[in-house]
Design goal:
heterodimer, A: 116 residues, mainly beta, seven-stranded mixed β-sheet, four-stranded antiparallel β-sheet, 0% helix, B: 115 residues, six-stranded mixed β-sheet, 12 strands, globular
Chain lengths: 116, 115
């Protein structure tokens, strides 16, 4: 299993530009999460999906952020327009939950976003 | 709502020494508990998890953790630390109430290993 795959690994963009981050979860996992990690705020849950349906997007900072999961093997997080304060490492994670068992998350390697 | 506290932001240990990282949680019942490790430039990797049963949980890389209900703690231990263990460690908690429940992560403890 290749694990959770994120692309790109690094992204440098100018303020005002659109940025799209991509994630391929582990096959068979029914939950997908987008997190943002910064020194100041630590790990923040932005949004999560269950069976491709967005369940909770209360962590999305503002309307400039949007996320989609068109199928079980692909998700995107888009920032438009980007701002310097969006600079962070963005992680995608997936998990498999069955009954009363939470099997823990598998994280991707992250996308380090720098907005200049 | 649940919460998790990792009181140590940074810990330094000598290679070969024992390690204990502290984690305290707040939740009304017995939660799911996890420890993750993050190496520089990498995502978080699950070390071990506690659901129920035996309160001493064995994980990967020689780590173990003990759930102590009376102390609301889930401390991570390793008897002999290796230089490759230098990383950041996150404790996490989720309600044990069926299906998916939101996982709350601690703020992390950064481990430095000196020769």
């Amino acid at each position: 299993d290749a694990g959770v795959i994120q692309s790109p690994r690094h992204e440098v963009t100018e303020m005002g530009q659109e940025v799209t981050l991509r994630c391929k979860p582990i096959s068979g996992h029914d939950y997908l999460f987008w997190y943002r990690q910064t020194m100041m705020r630590g790990l923040e849950l932005l949004i999560y999906f269950n069976n491709n349906v967005p369940i909770d997007d209360s962590g999305m900072p503002e309307d400039r952020f949007s996320a989609k999961m068109p199928n079980a093997s692909f998700s995107t997080l888009k920032i438009q327009p980007s701002e310097p304060r969006d600079s962070a490492v963005y992680f995608c994670a997936s998990s498999f939950t069955q009954g009363f068992s939470n099997y823990g998350y598998t994280f991707g390697s992250g996308t380090r976003l720098t907005v200049v | 709502a649940q919460s998790v506290t990792q009181p140590d932001i940074h810990i330094t240990v000598s290679e070969g020494a024992s390690l204990e990282l502290r984690c305290n949680y707040s939740y009304g019942a017995t939660p799911y508990l996890f420890w993750y490790v993050q190496s520089p430039g990498q995502g978080l990797q699950l070390l071990l998890k506690y659901f129920s049963g035996d309160t001493l949980v064995q994980g990967i890389k020689g780590f173990e953790a003990e759930f102590k209900r009376s102390q609301s703690s889930f401390n991570l231990r390793k008897p002999s630390v290796h230089w490759s263990d230098a990383a950041e460690y996150f404790c996490a908690v989720a309600p044990n109430s069926g299906g998916y429940q939101k996982v709350t992560f601690g703020t992390g403890t950064k481990l430095q290993v000196i020769p």
